[in-house]
Write a structure and sequence with these properties.
Blueprint: E1 13-14, E2 18-22, H1 28-33, H2 38-44, H3 52-64, E3 69-75, E4 81-91, E5 96-103, H4 113-128, E6 133-139, H5 143-152, E7 155-166, E8 169-179
Parallel strand pairs: 5-6
Antiparallel strand pairs: 1-2, 2-3, 3-4, 4-5, 6-8, 7-8
Helix pairs in contact: 4-5
This protein binds coenzyme A (COA).
Coenzyme A (COA) is lined by residues 40, 43-44, 83, 101-103, 109-115, 138, 142-145, 147-148, 151.
Length: 182
């Protein structure tokens, strides 16, 4: 079992191009300016555009929650906010969490930021938190995300048929997980 109080604090993580900063109210201006564009929302199935109040509320909850860890993904060399990455749904008894990442602007897709942030957070989850399982869900048309998750070691575990509705079409959602070797 993992200490249920583990997520009272969380560290800043660094990669070669990025700084992953614990998400909180201090990110309000940058998170607002970088609200997910339509392509990013299509890939995460976010139907509703968030208001300023939604953003403020989300950042506040992220900073006090102890059943999840959220990071702002910031480009190291110029401080540009590029998105968010999270471990959520902490189950300390079964040592598992769910992973989510969203780069907010499609102009920064394909530059390796997603790979770096995912590797850093999955490594933190498995090697520092000592999670046994990390799970995620990805829609079948999001081939970029699937490629990234497979590369990092996630395996498909199941298919939710017609679980996603976007622009008048149903799509399947793939369940994936990575399981610790210890
Ligand atoms: C999915 C996401 C995290 C990937 O991050 P990224 O920085 O854009 O991707 P990377 O540059 O790290 O590339 C990841 C891999 O996908 C490959 N790739 C890039 N575009 C691709 C495409 N259209 N189809 C398939 N693979 C693709 C890359 O070549 C790379 O694989 P490689 O290392 O073997 O060459 C990012 O694009 C994103 O946040 N998208 C919007 C929200 C989203 O989809 N979130 C995931 C929800 S499950």
């Amino acid at each position: 079992m993992i200490d249920p109080a583990f997520f009272h604090d969380q560290p800043t993580l660094t990669t070669s191009q990025l700084r992953l900063e614990p998400l909180g109210p201090g990110h309000f201006d940058t998170a607002l300016a970088a609200r997910p564009d339509r392509e990013s929302r299509r890939l995460t199935g976010t139907h509703v555009e968030t208001t300023d109040d939604d953003v403020a509320d989300r950042l506040h909850r992220a900073s006090i929650a102890d059943d999840r860890a959220d990071w702002a993904i910031v480009r190291s060399h110029d401080g540009m906010y590029v998105g968010e990455v999270s471990l959520r749904d902490f189950d300390p008894y079964n040592e598992s969490m769910d992973f989510h990442i969203e780069l907010s602007n499609s102009a920064v897709f394909g530059m390796g930021f997603g790979s770096e942030a995912t590797k850093a957070v999955v490594n933190y989850g498995l090697e520092v938190v000592h999670l046994h399982r990390i799970t995620l869900r990805v829609v079948d048309y999001n081939t970029r995300a699937q490629r990234l998750y497979s590369k990092i070691g996630f395996h498909p575990e199941g298919l939710l048929r017609d679980a996603w509705f976007w622009d008048g079409e149903w799509s399947d959602v793939i369940l994936m997980a990575i399981v610790s070797e210890h």
